[in-house]
Amino acid sequence: MDATVTLKDVAARAGVSVGTASRVLSGHSATSPAARERVRAAATELGYRVNARAQALRSARSHAVGLLVSDVRNPFFADIAHGAEQTALASSYVTLLANANEDTAQQDTYLDVFLTQRVDGIIIAPQGEGRGDLRALEQARVPLVFVDRTVDGFDVPSVTADNAQGVELAVAHLAEQGHTRIGYIGGPPSVSTGRARLSAFLESIARHHLDDDPALITAGDFRRASGGTAAAKLLANHRPPTALLAADSLMAVGAVTEVRRRGLRIGEDLALVAFDDIEWFGELDPPLTVVAHDARALGATAMRLLLDVIDGGTAESVVLPMRLIPRRSSSARPTHTAAVHHSAVHPSV
Question: pTM for the complete prediction?
Fold first, then answer.
């Protein structure tokens, strides 16, 4: 063996990352057959041999876990991270925090880093539909827990909120205020929470016999700018909604900005309800009505599940309840004109 040959040399010859080369040569199954073939061939050509002593040292528990959130700028995910981190510390584990930035490619980058660092397990708010390194993690039986979001087809324990309950609380509240045309600012259909909340919204609208005009439904990307764009589209309608429901906190902030830009008064000219109770939502003028769930509890529960899996246990998925916190932003009642328009379309209501 040429002592000057390094793992980096092998990775370069094979055309893979150092992390992938390391996993192949240590026998980790979270790699593709093609990568395994190239790495082993490169190691043979260069005369590289795995340092058995170093490998044995690395096989011990690291007492570190990876936490990959969707957007580190979102206060909701910051609270999830805080709950998870504090729970991990109480069990003598440290947390490595990473940001997917609502992007599957960036998600894969950090999952690769987590594997290279040999974390004992991973909590992830997953992006997309589970392609790439996420599937490799499952196949390698790396202890894994989903938080806030899930991916169809993955047998992975999860901690999520009761989205159907939350949407129903919001729609029922606005219906009680007399609103029949509710504009919905939803999340992307590629994300489980986006799909679940839209489905629940459609069911709640039907249940309360409200206007099911497709023009009342928009989709953003769980970021502030998209909430403003969606609100602008809804309010430009020739029959605009009298209330808005934003499916996450950042899109709600964007919607508030757009409503104010148009000279409308939230809580007087237009009702608004948001998902997720950000700490300062109650300090706005007017304070925002929210459908809330405990983000710290989501993170803490996910970490407890992960530590159980790491210790060889079998974790069951958990669904946490949501609650409505009514404030002045939803106190506006629909105008007489809007009610007449609705009655003309749906005389039975």
Answer: 0.76
